[in-house]
Write a structure and sequence with these properties.
Blueprint (H helix, E strand, L loop, with lengths): L16 H17 L14 E2 L11 E6 L5 E3 L2 E3 L4 H17 L9 E6 L5 H13 L5 E3 L2 E2 L4
Parallel strand pairs: 1-7, 2-5, 5-6
Antiparallel strand pairs: 2-3, 3-4
Length: 149
């Protein structure tokens, strides 16, 4: 039965505008409360450490110094850096020089990297690669003790 003559029934309509407003408020809330890691805000100051020096006997050590200009020294002797294989050869010669003065079987030498804080990252990676090529698995970094606060 049709009690309303001439008037057709209106279709229900969903109004999307309030739904979009609620979603935008939720999105803004999530954006404000979420923390993002920002690499541009990292302030890194290296190298410092608070460890105490070891008092026991020093094992075989090869000290590699790298200054801010990228010059290398192995056990206080300047070496020319051409590529990582030549640096690996210099490391092998330094290890052989350590073994000459000592009797018996000595353990693998420890490579200690003394890099200036302004040294490029590539210079340190070159030393790590040269130590890998030379077969020296024990590598560590020297750090200056931090000043008391």
């Amino acid at each position: 039965m049709n009690f309303r003559k001439g008037n057709s029934r209106e279709e229900p309509e969903i109004n999307l505008i309030p739904f979009i407003d609620v979603l935008l408020v939720i999105l803004i809330f999530l954006m404000v409360t979420t923390t993002y890691s920002r690499f541009t805000e990292l302030q890194i100051t290296l190298p410092t450490a608070d460890a105490q020096k070891a008092q026991d006997e020093k094992p075989n050590q090869i000290n590699i110094g790298i200054d801010a200009q990228g010059r290398y020294k192995i056990n206080d002797q300047a070496v020319a850096f051409l590529d990582t294989t030549t640096l690996a050869d210099d490391l092998k010669r330094a290890a052989a020089a350590l073994d000459q003065g000592k009797s018996g079987s000595q353990p693998d030498p420890i490579v200690i990297i003394n890099a200036d804080r302004a040294t490029t990252h590539q210079s340190v990676i070159d030393v790590l690669e040269a130590a890998r090529i030379a077969g020296m698995a024990k590598v560590t970094f020297a750090a200056q003790a931090s000043s008391p606060k």
